[in-house]
Every structure is written in C-alpha cells, then in structure tokens.
Amino acid sequence: MTVSTLFRYVKTTKTDHSAIVLGQIGLSDPKEWLQLRAQHQKLPSHALIIKIFIDSSASFTSLNKNADFQSLIEESPALIPPMEPLTQQKLININGIQRLCFDNSRFILDFHIGDLFTQLNAIALTDSSLIAHWYCDEQLDLSPITLSQLWQIAKLSQDRAHLFFCASQRTDQAEHHCVLQTQTDFESRATQAGFHCIKLNMNDDVETCIRTQVKKNQQQSAIDREISLSERLALRHQHTLKQQAFPLMSTEEGSIAIIGGGLASANLTLSLASRQRRLHLFCKDPTLAAQASGNKQGALYPLLTPENNPLSQYFQQAFLFSRHRLQSLHQEGFSIAHDLCGVLHTGHDIRSMDRINKILNGHAWDPDVAIAVNKQQATHLAGVDIDKTGIFYPLGGWINPQEYTQAAIDKALSLTQLDIHMNTHIDRLAQKNSQWYLYQGGREYGPFASVVIANGHTLTQFKQTQALQLSGFRGQISHVPSKGKLSDLKTVLCSHGYLTPHHSNTHCVGASYIKNAPDLDFCPQEQADNVEKMRHSYPNKPWVEDIDVSDNDARVGVRMVTRDHAPMMGPAPDIEQILARYQTHQLTPQSRQYWQSTPAPIHQGLYILGGLGSRGLSSGPLAAEALAAMICHQPLPISQETVALLSPNRMWMRKLLKGKAL
C-alpha cells in the first residue's frame, strides 16, 4: 500500500472538481512522488495536494540521501513525461512548510517539517482545506503517535476521512507479533479519534480491503461516532477561534481584478491562473515592472535573525519557493537572466559585524541556508579580495526582476483568460451589491468578485487602504561597466549596499534608502554614495576602485516598507470599523476577549499584497501563492502564525489583542 494506490481509490470516489487533499505521515520512497504525479496527469480536472509530515532529524537525513530524482528517472523512464523540473528541487532542513508546485500547480507537494504536533497545530484551517484521507508510511513507527496527535489529525480531516496503514510484513515471528500489537494499539487510538482505520496488506487488492473494513467500521456504535465527531468539531472550533483576529477569506467563483504590474502582481496572476481563475490585470505604466521591479539585477537570499523568529522562518520558506518558481519557469523555456551563484554577506562596521556573529551563533542553520566563512573562504567565493568574515548563502544569487515578472505573466496567459490593461491608472474602488468596480476617471471597470491591490508604492492611494502602515523608500541603483579586477567578482556581495557579478558586461551597485523622497529624479550624490558604500565596506581593495559610476547610468524606484519588515498579504482591513468598535471595546480584560473571539472587520472581496521592501524577490512569490490559495479555497503554504505575521491588519490587532491603546 502506498500513497499512489490510495490516490487511485480516492479519484474513483470524487464527485466534484475541487482539489483532492491527502495527508501523509512519515517519509515515503521519493519514487512514490514520481508515480503519483504520473497517475495524476491522467486526471487533469482535479488539483492534487499532498501534505507530507516528516520530522527534521533522521527522516530528513534519509530523505536527502534517497532523493536523487535524476537517478530515479533514469531507472524508471516510463514515469517521466515530463519529470525534469522535479529533479531540480531540493528540500532543506528547516521547520515549517516547503511547497513544490508542478504541472501548473495541479500537483502540489507540501512538506511539513518538524515536530508532528507543532506542525499539525500550526495549520491555517478552513473547511475547504480539510484533508480527505491520511496514509501512514509503511516504514513509520506508529507507537510514538499519541492520542493527542491523532485528535489534531482528526481536527484537520473531513468527517468521513479514512486513515490507511499497512499490516505488518515482518518475517521474524517475535518481531511480527510486536509490530502487530503496536498496530492494534494505534488502530484503537485512531478509532477513538473518530477515524475509519483501513489496515492493508501489501499484496491485497485495495478496493476489496477497503470494502471489507468499511463494513467492519460500520459496526462501531452510532453513539461512539457521534461522540468522536463532536469532539472533533469542538477542536476545530477552538482552532478557528485562534484565527479570528487575522481572518482567512475566500471568494466565490467570478472574475478577479489585480491592480499593479510588478513582481507581486505578476506572481499572484500566475498563481491564480494556475487555478483557472478569470483575471484582469490593471497597470498604470506602459510596460510591466516599470517601477521597483524594473532593476536589471536583484539579490535573492533570505532574511535571517539570531533567534530564527517567525519572520526569519517565513523568509527561508519564501526564498526557497521563489527559487523553485524561477527554476520551473526557466526549465519551461522562459527567458529569465539569473545566476544562483550564492550571496556573501559581510559587515561594514562593528555593529553590523556583531549582528552577523549573532545570527551565525544564534541558531544551528542548515548549511544549505547559511554557513559561516572566514576571510580566506570569503575571498575564494567572491573571486576578489574580501579579507572579511561573513555569512554565505549558497542557494542565493541574483535575478533580473523585470524578466521574472514578464515570464510569470507570459506563463499565466497560457493558462487562463487574462485581460491586461496597460496605461490604466485606477484611482478609485467601490463595492456595489457585493461586487467590486474600478474607476479610471469617469471610466468604470467591473463587476469583479474580488480585487487585489498589489500596486507597489501607490498601495495606500485608495480610501480603503490609506491607513495601512507602510512607508515609501526611494532607492537609486547604479549600473557600472565590468572592467579590471571588478570583472572577477563571481558572487553577490551584501554589506553597506550590494554589488552583483556582471551580466551583459554590467554590474549593479547600490542602493540608496531615503524615506518619503520628494521625487524620483536621478541624483548625482546618491550615485557617488553607492560607490562610497563599497569603499566603506571593503577599504583599500584595488577592485573597488574599478567601480566607475561616471556614466551616470542609474535607475530609481520606490520600495514600500513595513515597520516589522514583513510583507502584507491578506484581506484588506476595514479600519473605520476597527476604530468604531474600539470606542466600545478598549483597555479592559473584556475587550481583549472580544477581539480574540470576534472576526476582525475586513472589506469582503478586497485583498492586499505589498510592502515587500528590499527583499521582494525572496518574499513576494510565496506571499502571492498563499493569497491565491486563500482566495481559491485551497490549503495555504504557510502556517496560521505566518498568516498573522503577514496580515494587513496586524499593527492594530497586535495592540488590541494585548489590551493596549491604539
């Protein structure tokens, strides 16, 4: 019995076209994913999402040891067509969710890595994301799975969910008896949690086994079933109560308007197009990525903190997802200039060097995420004389954001009906009869079932968004010719500013960081400052003198930044309603209880995606994928804690939940 044979059973019982969501506990043979994907390609009307829960120690070591997808494909060429994108992916030993999307997001693997109870309890829960059936890997030791964990699994499951596991296949009589007793005890606990348990022999016909054991399960008393279901519903209710302050909101079928033409809106467009939604994209510029996403080269690497807090964990997951999407688009033939050459981060003064040391010493980072390097290693990695210690991000690099944006839109155009409205500056939104309308002067667009505002530094221009706590920071990047020792640079450098290896004989260096700048004109002083930052970072290094900005070749954009450096993603908060309710519910224990148990006011059908700051290449694509999943009634690739971290209403709700004054 494998998860692929379980899928064969599930698809025969599916009566609608919603996504099939299956859960797996424990590690399986990676070949199973290839077999499962090959089967799923024959059922294109259903998206298939497999949520795989594994711990982060021995199982993960085994996974990486066995996950040589290329050799698996060579052994089983019949499994291919086409399997190549899967060979490029690598899971990293970090806690949380890592999402891999294939076949235009019709086949999704969500890896939940870490303590089982913690990962189960962290899931953002909606009725549409409940898991249909579960499979326990045949190599999994069932004895450590407690009744409490099974109740958490039950909470996340559909009411008639089966739990499949394999009967003992041990040949040694004593060992067989021991495993059999373990399975019997496990089945008893799972039944108590309300599951229909299906124990399968490896060589038996799956459907025959299921029919036989379903009859057995039906002998369970109606009272027992009612009790277990009531407990499951109570746990589910408790879980959803925790989400009230940072609500999830999906929309009914209907067209969706996206305002914006940069990296965030393009990735959202692609994620929604993969789910077959009807889309309209409104961009005020004549070309895509004409604002902050228009740089020639942008650095791709995670934001880490010494304590590896939720923000740091999100950036690691998001960085890996962005890397996965980039590789998938590139594999499909889309032209995206990039080089995953790694990123070297060094300090430029005592404070920044102390910060780097705190990051390195504060957490045991997976070597694929970050490694400490000495002066000699830094120089070797960079290809130029660095003479400084630092952090190296081996999976990082640089991407051309404009080409990344264009590729995402081009891919979306091949998947769904997408109308692109260029030179269209939407200046007003209005909701009438539960539908949204957009306005450019006197011209009206709509109706739309929902609207997503993802327009970069103009995010706060609308009445519904003007109170969002975001600030615009001007950034001027200098383009310099590749010459002398500078041309030897072979990794991205980040210190007091950043510098990229050359592409088309040009390096990018910068950038300035000026809050609420009055204009976006070229600034000679900022051009000179960009070079000075490199001299400050790497003093007395000859290659720095080869950075020549005399051509005044530069580009200026505005990044929207939040105070806590997390992007904004989710339903647009109704600030007027929050403030009105605050007049009644404030500064008492009762008010805290009110805000904890009452859904936060939001604009139905209106969403926010923005505030990506200077790390949008890393943080934006996963935020877009999470928002698309939320809109389309699918399981999210982020935890509920991360939903709260990214929520556009978090600045207000964090205070209200603590009983503090706004």
From TrEMBL:
Its main location: cytoplasm. Residues 259-662 are annotated as: FAD-dependent cmnm(5)s(2)U34 oxidoreductase. It is found in: Cytoplasm. It comes from the Bacteria. InterPro entries: FAD-dep_OxRdtase, FAD/NAD-bd_sf, tRNA_MAMT_biosynth_bifunc_MnmC, tRNA_S-uridine_synth_MnmC_C. In the N-terminal section; belongs to the methyltransferase superfamily. tRNA (mnm(5)s(2)U34)-methyltransferase family. This is tRNA 5-methylaminomethyl-2-thiouridine biosynthesis bifunctional protein MnmC. It comes from Shewanella surugensis. The lineage of its organism: Bacteria, Pseudomonadati, Pseudomonadota, Gammaproteobacteria, Alteromonadales. The gene is mnmC.
